[in-house]
Amino acid sequence: MQDIKKKKIAVIGAGISGLSASAYLAKAGNEVHVFEKHNQPGGRARQFTTGEGFVFDMGPSWYWMPDIIERFFNDFNCKTSDFFELVSLNPQFEMIFSDSKMDVPESFEEMKLLFESIEKGAGEQLEKFMNSAQYKYEVGMNDFVQKPCHNWLEFISPKIASSALKLDLLTNFRSYVAKYFSNPKLQTLMEFPVIFLGASPKNIPALYSLMNYGGYKLGTWYPMGGFYQLVLAMQKVAESQGVVFHFNQSVEKINAENGKISSLLINGIRHEFDAVVASSDYHHSESLLESSQRNYTDEYWESKTFAPSCLIFYLGFKEKIPNIKHHTLFFENDLDAHIDAIYGEKKWPENPLFYACCPSKTDNGVAPPDGENLFLLMPLAIGIDDDEKIREKYLKKMLKRVEKHTGFKDLKSSIIYQKSYCVSNFIKDYNAYGGNAYGLANTLSQTAVLKPKIKNKQIKNLYYTGQLTVPGPGVPPSIISGKIVALEVNQLKKIKNEKII
Q: 2 vs 27, 112, 217, 489, 494, CA distance in Å?
């Protein structure tokens, strides 16, 4: 048995990847300190409570890939049910079209019947699609996305090589879906999950049909008390391993000499560490270094395709809203036109698509007894102006469509709490490049080895984790990202006869 020398390690940021990395680092026997600029953990997955009795999750609300999340807790000899209650949503969500609506059922057998009722033969096609997606999910999530991606040699293995064609890396997602379904509504339904990856289905590899399996087949879940329960649970796991959290602590400078970090400047005080893991925005983390010590230039970041930012409204209503589900997708307008506004013209969309989350339909604890909690999210281009006047303009657009769908007249008059969040807030709160909400788009040219590296090329004890590096955006990938970087810091691959993770 070989011992690992105990290291004093700093983790910058208590978002999902920082929570994950800190827990695994501490489990390996290191002294781990997490420094978070806010007064609570979670990063984009924070939560806040209002005086009116509303509880709002600030960001993530889709609990997909439950097995990946469960695996994190299993690594620490516990399970999600030790911390919170998971509820399977039925329907998983509702999708609103211009002339109809569609409930996506919890049961896969019922989903096949739904597809068959819309397009003859589509039920059987869905079965084939999901069988292929399951294969991609099992290979992709267990092998492909677990790599640190230093170079392509990591992917030279019999299993990955034999899976290459089945993973459909060189086929775009839109063409792939069209091979199975011809009905436009079914195509839209199947394309929806990859929107989370931050690019048009035309530019996303078909590999990511694994998202359909991780969502539609494994189900859409909700942790009672809100998504933030996952954050609190991860914090408890980290603390059980000895991690120490320091809130309201801003890292102002990373000091490095002779290819090694010497200290961090935190709230004006210097602290020495043996290694540093930056789970804060990658571009921002590098801005804390001298320019000559950074992995990437400003020109590099300007050349990248970023996932969208978004306009979010947290709304508290004094009365119940009828005919709205926990998750509702308002897709009455053209998807490609909205995507072009994000990536092409980089402007506010004329006829936007948006998403509504009403957790009070499932959880009585997130709104007053007679009230309703409604979260509206509209994807946007990064780096655009987002003053209050234009935010309010789009709130009216979204409320009008919710009114049409629910039959509730004058929703605005029922609002007793309102808060907006947009591009400038992402920049201010998270130092997010361009105000992005979801990191880099998972296009083929920004996948795996082509993503920003998890190790600094010049400073041997500085590492990066989170949605701007491998595996990419989303809660499950961020959990995996934290584990990957912890393995690198601890060099666990080189240790024999000792199973730490």
A: 15, 53, 42, 16, 10
Question: SS3 for 216?
Answer: helix
Going by C-alpha positions, the residue among 324, 309, 327 that lies closest to residue 62 is 327
Element (H, E) at 118: helix 108-118
Q: How far is CA 162 from the centre of its chain?
A: 29
Distance from C-alpha of 267 to C-alpha of 234, rounded to nearest angstrom: 25
Cα–Cα dist 347/288, whole Å: 31
Alpha helices in 359-497 (DSSP H): 388-406, 423-430, 475-490
Peptide bond into 223 cis (omega under 30): no
Q: Convert the pLDDT of each residue in 239-276 to its tens digit.
A: 999 999 999 999 999 999 999 999 999 999 999 999 99
Residue 51 or 143, more confident: 51
How much is the pTM?
0.95
Q: Is the model's pLDDT at 500 over the cut of 70? A: no
Considering the chain, what percentage of its residues have pLDDT values greater than 90?
A: 85
Determine the residue type at 149: C
Strand partners, 15: 42
- Rounded CA-CA distance 207/214 in Å is 12
What pLDDT score was predicted for residue 494? 42
Sheet arrangement for strand 244-247: 244-247, 31-36, 8-12, 275-278, 462-464
- Phi, psi angles (nearest 5°) of residue 140: -65, -50
Residue 62 near residue 39 (C-beta atoms within 8 A): no
Give the alpha-carbon dihedral of 434, 13, 439, 424, to 10 degrees: -30
Residue 175: pLDDT over 70? yes
Give exposure, 383-409, as e/b (b: 16+ Cβ within 10 Å).
ebebeeeebeebbeebbebbeebbebe
Classify 152 as helix, strand or coil: helix
Cα–Cα separations (whole angstroms), residue 488 to 9, 24, 259:
13, 11, 17
The count of other CB atoms within 10 Å of the CB of residue 294 is: 19
Query: So what's the pLDDT on residue 447?
Result: 86
**Distance between CA atoms of residues 410 and 418, nearest Å:** 15
Nearest by Cα to 228 from 106, 366, 362: 366
Torsion of CA 475, 171, 485, 192, to 10 degrees: -10
What's the chain's length in residues? 501
Name residues whose C-beta falls within 8 Å of residue 396's C-beta, 6 or more positions apart in sequence: 412
Q: What residue type is assigned to position 415 of the chain?
A: I
Closest C-alpha to 330, from 274, 267, 277, 406: 406
Nearest to residue 277, comparing CAs of 469, 137, 96?
469
Give me the torsion for CA of 110, 112, 115, 116, rounded to 10°. -100
Give me the residues paired with residue 104 across strands. 93
